[in-house]
Amino acid sequence: MAGSMSPTEKLRPGVSGMSLYVPTLRVPLEAWCEWTGNQWPKVQAVVGNSFRVTAPDENVYTLAATAVLRLIRQYGIDPTRVGSLALGTETSTDNSAGSVILRGMVDRALESLGMPRLSRSCEVPEVKHACLGGVYAMKAATRYLALDGADKVAIVVCADIAEYERGSTGEQTQGAGAIALLLEPRARLFELDLAHAGSASDYRGPDFRKPHARHLVESYATRTKRQHDFPVFSGKYSTIAYLEETMRAFEDMSSRFGIPSLELLRGAEALFFHRPYHHMPAQAAAFLYLRALLEAPAEGTTVLALCREAGVSREALDAESRSRPDLYSRVLEGKADVDPFPVTSQVIGLLRKSGEFKKFLETKMSLGSRGAAELGNLYTAALPAWMAAGFEEALTRNIDLSEKRLLALGYGSGDAAEAVPIRMVPNWTEAAKNIGFAASLKGAHDITRDQYESLHDTASALDLPAMPGNRFRIASVGQRYEPNFQDLGVEYYEYVS
User: Fold this and answer.
1) Number of C-beta neighbours around residue 75 at 10 A
2) String of b and e for 404-443 (b: at least 16 CB within 10 Å)?
């Protein structure tokens, strides 16, 4: 049970628990490939195995609240000690209220279960920056515990619904889900080393955006007859932005440690990245690994061999490593989809095929990867969900992570990145036993093509299975728009036990 910290204990804030919730309705990507004429082996290798979609009575708030209530019950949290409840998301639908919506939902569910409400002095912020909102919220909660919340606990929930227009290049990377994290002044799962965390941000213009104005354009998502939140994006440009910004955050972290980048990469027990799809973290890791090789004099022979095989010069590769391209300026010049690192990209293609790098991926980035491949893109929840899968796999396989350093690299389009070192605590397995990642994936219902397309385009579908209990649902939506009382569009929720 989460308890108060003894006055004699050293303040080491971090995460003490994790709880995942994903919707019941699932789209297997192999079936999706049959519906759309895509190649299953390629989609599986690049994207993953499946993604979840919300039922008509679910939204981002129901996902988040269900994950929070699960966390409270799975870890025996005293609700009266929760001093901060933060929501990291990019798909919330209310532009006024923050996580107080979740607070209201959870409070009433707790009362129905015979438990006290959350503390009345609980903070209720919402943090938004594309897929990075959850990492920012986690850092803020850690600072809260280190400063004025040492006698409290904090909950951060990362929740999102990743949707793309049917027929778009992003359709196979959809997903929906939420993961809640318990943070305490003395972590019982892993500590966050914010003193050595690296940050980076730079404005990238039309990278991956959700401007309100798109809803007023007649040509936008014409087949979809429901409220939707499809982004406007440019795949190649967004990939370049992801790689470049993640690298800058990693460089900042490396400089804070004062140790070579290659030593930092090889010395980490495991690496977790923001995961929009399966292939992207591996590409980012290769980008970081090659830059680290360039900085290491002892790896000169390896770099020269890669350059020769790629037919490029070491000098050209070094020049790109020193460059600092302004990606937004390239957009204004009409060069958004022109790779600013063409030589680097050629060499990375060869590096990824090398035995050395394949071994690096297997030893540093395979933990939890199989479980994460079942989720699709969860935006803010993608990184912590992968971590949860990794911790549970390590527990199952008896992999000792005690006192080991791991690296978590988050990214948010637009764009910004965070590179956060974490340290597993000695008795982390006790907290990991309650994560329940594999259990949260059970009970999935594979929907048909007609059901998927109807849900996607109209938010309804015939013959859907009965949804399970122990979750929140939208009970009704307000319709009143009168001078003395208005609730037009306001959702009313209920907990289904």
Assistant:
1) 22
2) bbbbbbbbbbbbbbbbbbbbbbeebbebbebbbbeebbee
Angle, CA of 176, 177 and 183, to the nearest 5°: 150
Task: Indicate the domain borders of the chain.
Answer: 14-496
Cis link prior to 339 (omega < 30° from 0)?
A: no
Q: What distance in Å separates the CA atoms of residue 42 and residue 356, rounded to the nearest whole number?
A: 23
- Which residues have a Cβ under 8 Å from the Cβ of 84 and sit 6 or more positions away? 122, 123, 124, 125, 141, 144, 149, 152, 154, 155
| Distances in whole angstroms, Cα of residue 358 to Cα of each of 2, 298, 353, 354 | 41, 20, 7, 6
Q: How many CB atoms lie within 10 A of CB 202?
A: 16
Cα distance between residue 27 and residue 11, in whole Å: 44
CATH of 14-496, picked from 3.40.47.10, 3.40.50.720, 3.40.470.10, 3.40.50.620, is 3.40.47.10
φ and ψ of 153, to 5 deg? -125, 160
Structure tokens at 61: 């708030």
| C-alpha–C-alpha distance, residues 292 and 3, integer Å | 43
Question: What token pair was written down for 85?
Answer: 């409840």
Q: What helix, strand, coil percent values describe the chain, rounded to 5? A: 40, 20, 40
The model's pTM is 0.96
pLDDT digits (tens, 9 = 90+) for 225-267: 998 999 999 999 999 999 999 999 999 999 999 999 999 999 9
